[in-house]
Amino acid sequence: MSAATSPDLVGALPPPVRRDPMVLTWMAGVAISWFGDSAWVVALSWTAAHTLSPVLAGVVLGGEMLPQAVLVLVGGVLADRYDPRRMLVAGQVGQAAVLGAGAVAWHSGTHGAPVLLAIAVAFGIASGLTLPSGATLLRQLVSRADLGTVQGWNQISNRAMRLLGAPVGGVLVAWRGPVGVMLVDAVTFLAIAGVLTAVVRPRYRLPRASRERWRESFGDGMHYLREHETAKLFVIGLTALNVFVTPVAGLGVALRVSGSGWGAHWLGIADASLAAGAILGSVVAIRWQPAYGAAAGFRVLVVQGLAIAAVGIGWRPALVVAMVVLGFTAGAASVWLSAAFMRAIDASHLGRVSSVTSLGDMTLMPLSVPALGAVVRATSVLTATMAFGLAMSLLCAWFATRGAIRSLEA
After folding, report:
1. So where are the chain's domains?
2. Cβ-based burial of 194 (10 A; exposed 0-12, middle 13-18, buried ≥19)
3. So what's the pLDDT on residue 28?
4. DSSP labels for 165-214?
């Protein structure tokens, strides 16, 4: 392993993000890709639900998760060893090719689970192998001071593209069938691959892992996690957060609305409140970045825990306020914590550490949702959201007071 752990500047200092054509073009390309992904998710869900049995539909919709979880640790090693830009280009082109082949097969009359499952599995493989490369590439493009700004605007565009892409996907699949959405999503993959190839050039040289065997490289990453207190706290903290947030924001809200007899439109109102709060929180976090971003992020999430608890209150204004606060705190804390994470982790290990965090999300979130359902069944919606929310508040208060977190400057 190289002795250097920080990126080395290649050439002149990059300009601020707002005046950086390369980074702005790259972020636009990423946004276009998210638009296509959002459209495809809706089209896949609709097609699976209307052409397959419930069991097969579930297999298809979950087909991406297993290969992604299995391969993301391999992706972390690859991100620390090879050029992350080329890794991402290969992944984008590969997914475009899979969608193109799927469109040809579907158009020629080969329909059903085999085509949809093949696309889902291929996406899971590509995502698992390239997901960690996204973090390492960002570390190569902008200065430490601008990491939070880029992360914030990426989060805003991600939510905006979800809001735009989902209805477009619904309209396209109803009008042209899944083939139309496959082709649209394939074009978006090619667009970001083109931007990465023609426009993006790294400004910082990252130390690369030595060409040892994969098992040894992975073991070195795990050793780094065991010995590096800050990295360990970040991985545990960021992984644990979604255990509390995701089930309440999804299943908890649905159970509250359904149990109160408010009507399905209140689910839309709750989701819109969450999205609006998250966008506002990200904008605020971009404009105001505290001196100690990691500690500030965990303190904000203490408030988020209280909002999670309030979701279970059987009063519609309380639900709207809780979802706005939940979104706002998520938007702000994500900007500060993600930037602090990338600054704190040695550049030589960023891919492997981020892959462990991603694996935690992939494995724990599917378990936490039924766990919330079990608590609701045994008690009530309010008791379950109170338990999840207060547990999160206490956990985040503990993380905010750790010395390794409090000392991290923005």
Report:
1. 8-211, 220-406
2. middle
3. 95
4. HHHHHHHHHHHH-HHHHHHHHHHHHHHHHHHHHHT---SEEPPPPPS--H
Q: Could you give the maximum distance between any two Cα atoms of the chain, in Å?
A: 62
Place of tokens 């309380």: 318
> Which residue did the predictor score with more confidence, 195 or 228?
195
Give, in degrees to the nearest 5, the angle at Cα 360 between 358 and 365.
Answer: 105
The CATH class of 8-211 is mainly alpha
Structure tokens at 260: 């109160």
Helix or strand or coil: residue 96?
helix
Yes or no: domain 220-406 corresponds to CATH 1.10.10.10: no
pLDDT at residue 125 greater than cutoff 90: yes
Backbone angles phi, psi at 62, to 5 degrees: -95, 0
Contact partners, residue 226, CB within 8 Å, separation at least 6: 232
Q: pLDDT grade, residue 110 (50/70/90)?
A: confident
Q: What residues pair up with 205 in beta bridges, in sequence order? A: 8
Q: pLDDT > 90: what percent of the chain?
A: 47
Same fold, 8-211 and 220-406: yes
| Residues recorded for the chain | 410
* Alpha carbon 37 to its chain's center: 13
Q: With beta carbons less than 8 A apart as the criterion, state whether 278 and 214 touch.
A: no
Query: Which residues have a Cβ under 8 Å from the Cβ of 393 and sit 6 or more positions away?
Result: 301, 302, 303, 304, 305, 306, 309
pLDDT the model gives residue 410: 60
Over 80: is that where the pLDDT of 380 sits?
yes
Closest CA to 177 of 92, 257, 102, 260: 102
pLDDT band at 3 (very low <50, low <70, confident <90, very high): very low
